[in-house]
Amino acid sequence: MKTYAISLLFLLFLISGRAQGDKTEPITIKNQGTFAIGGSIKKSEGTFDPIAHGVFNPTNQSTQGQTLHGDHATVLYQIPTEPRNLPLVFWHGYGQSMRTWQTTPDGREGFQSIFLRKGFPVYLLDQPRRGLSGQSLEPKMLEARTEDQLWFGIFRMGKGTNFYSNIQFSKDPEALNQFFRRSTPDTGPLDINLNIDAVSNLFNKIGDAVLVTHSHSGGQGWGTVLKTDHIKGIVAYEPGSNFIFPEGKAPEEISYVGGILKAREVPMEDFQKLTKIPIVIYYGDYIPEKKVENPGQEQWRAALLMARKWTKAVNEAGGDVTLVVLPEIGIKGNTHFPMSDLNNQEIAQLMYNWLEEKGLN
Question: Per the confidence metrics, is the pTM higher than 0.85?
Fold first, then answer.
């Protein structure tokens, strides 16, 4: 009887482990690593003298004849043992880094692991002058500004220090602590063209892949399509700016509390490149349809309105853009970071289903 009880407990343990799903299984990686992509080299005039200039002195050191490598992007990649054909390239949003995609603030698996388990090679990047790509070739004064509550509102988590009701974010104080500690500043002036060049170089290096953007990288993603033919699809989470329209066909600017959202114009020949690939856009919850007093919500009302105009323009030109507002399909409570919210497995499955539907898997 004692042996039977131990065996039964062991069987229940195995069943329980399997019932928890993929997280109980190891992720097997065939190849992984990091590299820099893009960037340039700054050089000082003169000739380097290893005797006169070879001693490090941070307060008084000649840079004569020396160089500085910088303004590159940093890429972390992982290739599973049985990879799918098209990799996923993940690009973070404003004030963020590749950590957006790695692990959720409350410690669960992020999109990096979720899609590795589904067999996709993944490439995570830190754009130039951010995070692991912090070596800027242009100076910038960094400020230690107390802005946590500002971003708490802009990222639509709540007002001040109070969460919205039914929020898909952990109420554990440590989760919020971890979330705020993901922010990282630009170490040089923000340069959209520099970022686009680096990411287009990445696609030219690795070949055909799907681009996954978040927030500020959304508009930069449209611009990257104009620079490389290797982007075969885009998944955009809450793009907020730099929507591209044909010359002479941009909609009127959209005013909101705290600012104005303007569209960008490009030649029709360039705009047509956006019609050649499937694109899906996802927006979360707490975005009003009409003007409100809360600036944290207002800018997303403007972004969603512009996204609707952009979707219509691309589709009317022969494109394939799907715009999904999660509450409209019954998925409620998502913040500006649906890829790391409590229901990120459900959000990932939506993305996977779209990739499969478009033959991008």
Answer: yes
